[in-house]
Write a structure and sequence with these properties.
Chain B: Keywords: Heme, Iron, Metal-binding, Oxygen transport, Transport. Chain B: GO terms for molecular function: haptoglobin binding; heme binding; metal ion binding; organic acid binding; oxygen binding; oxygen carrier activity; peroxidase activity. Chain B: This is Globin domain-containing protein. The complex is a heterodimer. Chain A is mainly alpha-helical. Chain A has a single domain, classed as Orthogonal Bundle (Globin-like), CATH 1.10.490. Chain A has nine helices and two strands; from the N terminus they run βααβααααααα. Chain A has a two-stranded antiparallel sheet with strand order 1-2. In chain A, helix 1 crosses helix 2. Chain A is elongated and about 70 Å long. By secondary structure, chain B is mostly helical. Chain B has a single domain, classed as Globins (Globin-like). Chain B contains eight helices and no strands. In chain B, helix 2 packs across helix 4 and helix 7 runs antiparallel to helix 8. The radius of gyration of chain B is 15 Å and the shape is globular. The two termini of chain B are 19 Å apart. The chains are: A mainly alpha, B mainly alpha. Chains A and B meet through helix 4, helix 8 and helix 9 of A and helix 2, helix 3, helix 7 and helix 8 of B.
């Protein structure tokens, strides 16, 4: 599924052509291209392939607002989510066989949970380009850690459970859907380099 | 079919006894319809499910949420017999309602999240693990008559 927008130089010219308040950006872009007798000149337009269920502007603002609220407790949430994952989905322990203690609340779990939530917080900051922003982490997970990407969904579920526990009134259905979409997009970006 | 230790059985009963079916059922089903909007395809006869507010206030959604939790109640009280309890429900969902069985796992996960929100820190990782094992068995039983 493709969406497109005019490259910056041509957006100005589009505005000269049509009252841009009456038409949506895409519609006025179509008017502009038709006026220039063009339908798909690559030098004028950027084509963005929309990934499935891409984040809308509203999703991004809901996620940013919610992450602002939880940032003080991010370390606690990360540690708890990781501990819950290791306890409720014991197969995930295989990736941490080098830790002495895998119980919730142990030192390695707390430390690593904090690392994970820090990375997720950074991802909120690059939410407009998750694939680019997470490129190095994707390399790490693909080639060094070789974590089966199915596990990203499992950790995401445990993050949602932990958020529901710590922020029961803020974690409304509307926030839930935006955060679930964000974590899914993040997981896809993390798996981007796998093959 | 499934082995339950005494500790697991008492954990699940202890969780369930604190769950108000009439509150949690509607909340969980409404949340599924909001977070995974394609599930609304099964509820076209339920009236207005066009917005989160409409879904949360829809009486038919609430009623069905209670029905789902009622069936779970039977499973909690007959944990040795979950496959048999869900046999005809599974057949109905497979052959009459044509519900994709992946939705049972989705509903189970959302129900876990709603229960976690109610219980707070009392829903410990160990309790979550046992509860999710129970959910996994129920989901498998619901999918058991699909071929």
């Amino acid at each position: 599924m493709y969406s497109f927008k005019l490259k910056p130089a041509h957006r100005q010219k589009r505005h000269l052509l049509c009252d841009h308040t009456a038409l949506s950006p895409s519609a006025s872009a179509v008017v502009y291209l038709t006026h220039r007798r063009l339908t798909s000149r690559q030098d004028l337009i950027q084509v963005n392939q929309r990934s499935k269920m891409s984040l809308t502007a509203k999703d991004k603002s809901v996620v940013k607002a919610f992450w602002g609220k939880i940032s003080g407790k991010a370390d606690v949430v990360g540690a708890e989510a990781l501990g819950r994952m290791l306890t409720a989905y014991p197969q995930t322990k295989t990736y941490f066989s080098h830790w002495a203690d895998l119980s919730p609340g142990s030192a390695p779990v707390k430390k690593h949970g904090s690392t994970i939530m820090g990375a997720i917080g950074n991802a909120v900051g690059v939410i407009d380009d998750l694939v680019g922003g997470l490129s190095a982490l994707s390399d790490l997970h693909a080639f060094k850690l070789r974590v089966d990407p199915g596990n990203f969904k499992i950790l995401s579920h445990n993050i949602l459970v932990t958020l529901a526990i710590h922020f029961p009134t803020d974690f409304t259905p509307e926030v839930h859907v935006a955060v679930d979409k964000f974590l899914a997009a993040l997981s896809a970006a993390l798996a981007d380099k796998y093959r | 079919m499934v082995e339950w230790t005494d500790a697991e059985k008492s954990t699940i009963s202890a969780v369930w006894v604190k769950v108000d079916i009439n509150e949690v059922g509607p909340l969980a089903l409404a949340r599924v319809l909001i977070v995974y909007p394609w599930t609304q395809r099964y509820f076209s006869s339920f009236g207005d499910v066009s917005t989160p507010a409409a879904i949360m206030g829809n009486p038919k959604v609430a009623a069905h949420g209670k029905v789902v939790c009622g069936a779970l109640d039977k499973a909690v009280k007959n944990m040795g017999n979950i496959l048999a309890i869900y046999k005809s429900l599974s057949e109905t969902h497979a052959n009459k309602l044509f519900v994709d069985p992946d939705n049972f796992r989705v509903l189970a996960d959302v129900l876990t999240i709603v229960i976690a929100a109610k219980f707070g820190a009392a829903f410990t990782p160990e309790i979550q693990a046992t509860w999710q094992k129970f959910m996994k068995v129920v989901v498998a039983a619901m999918g058991s008559r699909y071929f």
